[in-house]
Amino acid sequence: MKKPWAGRFKEKTAKTLEEFSQSISFDKRLWQEDIEGSIAHAKMLHKQGIINKKELEKILKGLSEIEREIKNGKFQFKEELEDIHMNIEKALIEKVGQAGAKLHTARSRNDQVVTDLRLYLRKKVKEIIEKIRKLQKTLLSLAEKHINTIMPGYTHMQKAQPVLLSHHLLAYAWMFERDKQRLKETLKRINQCPLGSGALAGSSLPIDREFTAKELNFDIVIPNSMDAVSDRDFVLDVLYCGAVIMMHLSRLAEELILWSTDEFSFIQLPDRFSTGSSMMPQKKNPDPAELIRGKTGRVYGNLISLLTTMKGLPLTYNRDMQEDKEPVFDTIDTVTMSLKIVDEMLPLVEFNKERMNHQAQRGYITATDLAEYLVRKEVPFRQAHEITGKIVLYCIEKGKELKDLTLEEFRNFSHKIDEEVYSILTPLGSINGKSSYGSTSKESVKEQIRLLRKSLEEK
């Protein structure tokens, strides 16, 4: 099949090169954006008098027919035509003749592909934002449901201080709030119009880039044509945002995996989101969480892949940049599915409130509260810390918890301690005593829920 650029060549392209260089196998998912961009470009060409009304009508009719064929699965994508742009253009010319051959006037595949990619990512990023919003609502519902559930909080995977389960869950809601904000910022950089930049230097024809930008609902026209066709920062932004989202999901997945073990027994995962073993009949495996944890590494690789591709490229377009699509498609698909499966799974998780509360009673978990109690008794914090450490060591040696010590035992370490101390040595007393902003107290958690709900209501 004759190439659209064959005029300068004496020989046909080697079959091996066609197979090696084709991108239609993956960039065909840009067909809708390619048609959308072509319609806007055709309207601009007509507005500027570069094509006449009859030619415009033929082009629009032909593109509409191609759109229907693709939607109905009747369009034949051809590898020898390399990419989605040439496949659609060739089909258009076959349908409408010379009018179709005029569509590529003042346009290069360089500005065409980056326009398609921006249109595609604008849509997909908005979809991911909505999926994050949905997951946040799920987390908020769980937080409200477990506003009285106490659990141990950890540092270094050692019991640290008692917290409300709702406080723990809301930590992830806040992570996803940042993810949402990052994506909104990324949208601003995505929504800029490169169309009309040509191959790199613009066009000598009287085109109107502002018109096509408005037709495609872009916020601005990119002011430098060389930057417009060679920029993939917006793709890297999406890959970075995707990597951070997956990191947050992976942290949540890791905790679900740990909490579902017999050693923790904090949760019971739903059967429909678990798998068994082909050999061990008793097994119930947290495969969705493990897969999210595993897929995170691949999403990281997508970011590193494109960063590595871009780092040595001279201006402007280079064929290396064809390698931007598979990583971003994979990241979009992986992030979308991961958000969906976590959102579906979380409401079905059964939390073992009794077990969590029991574990929050152990491990000298209110030691910090004891130190701060001494501070309120005007003991300098460093001294209070040392006194409390000695009390904990005494408890370890005697096999007791802090709340089990008698007042006489406490006063062997400091005469500042009185009966009031017992009110802060229980997990609930510890939680109720937290007064700082953003703490794990019930009032603070309720305020967090209010703030997050307000954010979710904003458009």
Question: What's the layout of helices and strands?
Answer:
Elements lengths: L14 H7 L2 H4 L3 H17 L5 H19 L12 H13 L1 H4 L7 H37 L4 E6 L2 E7 H26 L1 E2 L15 H7 L4 E2 L3 H6 L2 H27 L7 E2 L18 H24 L14 H21 L4 E2 L1 H7 L7 H10 L4 H18 L8 H5 L15 H6 L9 H16 L2
Parallel strand pairs: 3-4
Antiparallel strand pairs: 1-2, 5-6
Helix pairs in contact: 3-4, 3-7, 3-9, 4-5, 7-8, 7-13, 7-19, 8-11, 8-19, 11-12, 11-13, 12-13, 15-16
Produce a short descriptive summary.
This protein is mainly alpha-helical and 459 residues long. Helix content is 60%, strand content 5%. The protein contains 19 helices and six strands.
Mean pLDDT: 95
Sum up the overall morphology in one term. elongated
Q: What is the helix content?
A: 55-70%
Low-confidence stretches: none
> What is the radius of gyration?
30 Å
Give the DSSP E fraction (strand runs of 2 or more residues).
under 5%
Supply the CATH superfamily name of the largest domain: Fumarase/aspartase (Central domain)
CATH class of the largest domain: Mainly Alpha
SSE succession: HHHHHHHEEHEHEHHEHHEHHHHHH
Largest beta-sheet details: 2 strands, antiparallel
* Spatial ordering of strands, largest sheet: 1-2
Structural class: mainly alpha
Known CATH architecture of the largest domain:
Up-down Bundle
